[in-house]
Each structure stands twice: as C-alpha cells, then as structure tokens.
Amino acid sequence: MSIFSFSRAHSPSEVASVSFFKKMFSQQIGIDLGTANTLIYLGDKGIVLREPSVIAIDDETKAPFRVGEEARAIIGRAPAGVTTMRPLKDGVIADFRSARLMLEEFIRRVTGSKSFVKPDIAIAVPSGVTGVERRAVREAAFNAGAGQIFLPEEPMAAAIGAALPVAEPTGLMIVDIGGGTTEVAVISLCGIVVNESIRVAGDELNDSIIQYLKKVHSLAIGERTAEEIKFRLGSAYKTADNDKYEVKGLNLITGLPRTATISRGEVREALTEPLSTIVDAIKRTLERTPPELAADIYNRGIVLSGGTALLRGLDELIANETEVPVFLAEDPLSCVAIGTGRMLMDPAYTRVLEQSLYQG
User: Fold this and answer.
1) Spatial distance between the Cα atoms of 213 and 166, rounded to a whole number of angstroms
2) Which CATH superfamily groups domain 156-200+274-333?
3) How does pLDDT run across 244-286, given as a tens digit for each residue?
C-alpha cells in the first residue's frame, strides 16, 4: 500500500502535510518524448537532458547496449549482435519495450538514485494520438518509475514553453513541427479551440531528400546523411545563394561508392511536397477558426516551434501562403519540454495539467 493511501478521510492539515512531503521529496519531471530527440525538464533546474531518441539493444541479453547520442553514433555501424533503433515513429511509441528501456535510462540519468517518492511526470503527446497510443506512453512512463502521470497535448505544451499567454481570452496559433508530427492549434483560455495533427514533419523531409537522390542522381544514402544535407542546404523559400554540397553514397547502377554534388535549389525542390502538406494543414486550421479568434491571430501572428521550425525560410513560406505574420519561438527546440515542466511547477497551469491527468 502507498504511504499516501488511507482508509479514512484526510483532514485539511493532513492533506497539506502530504502535499508538503511530496514537494520536499518527490521530483517533478517534464518530458518531450520526441521521435528524433528526447528532452527532460527537471523541477527548478530547467532542461537537464537533451538526447537523440535512439537505443541500441544487445540481441542476446536484450539489455541496452547504448542509449541516446552514443546509440545514434553507431547507427549503420553497430557490431553483429546489436540492433540500433528509434523506438518512436510519427510521434508515438512504435516499439514499447525499447521505448521503456530508453525512458528508464534517461530518467535514471537525471534523477540519480531512486527517490523515496515516485516522481510526477508530464509527457507531451501529439493531439492526434489514439487511445492505444496514449496507453502505450502511459505504460512506458509507469514502468520507468513514474508516480502520477500527465499526458498534455504537444501544442499546448509548446505554447506554454514559448511563453504565450494561453490563459487570456484571445486567439493564439502555435505550429509545432518536430521529427514525427506537425501540430497546429488555436488556443484560448487554456484550451485548444481548433487543431490538426499530421504525421508529416522532419522525418518526411529526410525521406524526401533520400528519394530525390535516388531518382535524380541514382545515389543511395542513409538517414544521417539526409539529415546532414537538410541542415546544410535545406530551405523552404528561395534564397539568393545556391550553395552546393558533396554527398557520398552508393551508386545504384554500379553498386559502388561514389560522390554526387547537390545544390540548395535541388534540396528545396526535394522538400516541396512535405512542406506543402504542412502549409495546407495550417490553412485548414485557420479556415476552421472562429472569426473573433482568427482576427486575433492575424494581429498577433503565428508562432513556430519544434526542431524543424528552424528550417531556413520556413517562416517566410508560411507567411507568404497564409498572409499572416509568422514568428519563431525564442527556443523552438525546447518549447515542448519547457512547457511540460512549467505545467508541473506553476500553479497558473493547474487546470491544464489536471485535464491531462491520465485516466484508464
């Protein structure tokens, strides 16, 4: 039985004593469990962990071989008997056991030895997740040692992390573009009024680059190389420069290694389709927004968060297509993690947190 389980009703002083005890000895952990990266916000310390969502498993013992950046470094280079994987796909858990092991290791790193009281954990989830996917996240958190589990929606967490006034009676639009999903939401009075979640984001941009090089240059490359190309040459809007980059891969015709040169313009062409899908989702959300809130958004603008929001020229593309001002959050990579942490620590977000308390 839990030390907080009693058979009789608690008096106000007992409740206050228990709450004080939990605050003194438990930890409050906010987690952005992303497809590409996992970020952890710990109590008053802020972001204490930022690691790739990758794990390498020993095939014989089924135990973790490497986790995070160490596992990412051996993708495509792992020795025999070791399987490297990303436990999340499209923003949700694809492999439950590996996700649990990865989460356990990350939580252990930030909390050290086990606390006497299990930590309260808030894990942001895409707004479009199914009940089964939500339960998978909950079970992974529970098995990783969580006490009370909250599953706030990513766009709300991102908005709070971006310091938007979510409690005010005004329309705010947040577009969180991560590795697996793009979350578009209109928020007012601590609630999501209109939203759309699509499973097109950073991973699809990488896939588009891989497919382009196969089709145009007959060159096969891996995911890490595609991501490197995206960082170096990726752009969503036409730029004055047209930088080039030498790409090493496998010739699909001869089967031998070779090098091809790709330009910024080619990469932009490769990214056209997934970026159009993202822009269309934003337009659809605006079209479904009540007129009064839409007017607020036109005055305040759209805020972008998430790692893919850093793509060069993406704000210009969205602004041009929607005719609404677009701004990049101050720390787009950390918004969701910061938001989950603030929900746990700041009483101003108690209502939002309570709505996200996992049931079932």
Assistant:
1) 43
2) ATPase, nucleotide binding domain (3.30.420.40)
3) 999 999 999 999 999 999 999 999 999 999 999 999 999 999 9
Fold match between 12-151 and 202-272? no
CATH topology classification for 12-151: Nucleotidyltransferase; domain 5 (3.30.420)
CA 301/CA 315 separation, integer angstroms: 11
Q: Which amino acid is at 183?
A: E
Place of tokens 């790739």: 52
* Architecture of the domain delimited by 202-272: Alpha-Beta Complex (3.90)
Q: Read out DSSP for 300-322?
A: H-EEEESGGGGSBTHHHHHHHHH
- 25-67 pLDDT, tens digit per residue, is 568 999 999 999 999 999 889 999 999 999 999 999 999 999 9
Q: DSSP of 61-111, one letter per residue?
A: T-SEEEETHHHHTTTTTPPTTEEEE-SEETTEESSHHHHHHHHHHHHHHHH
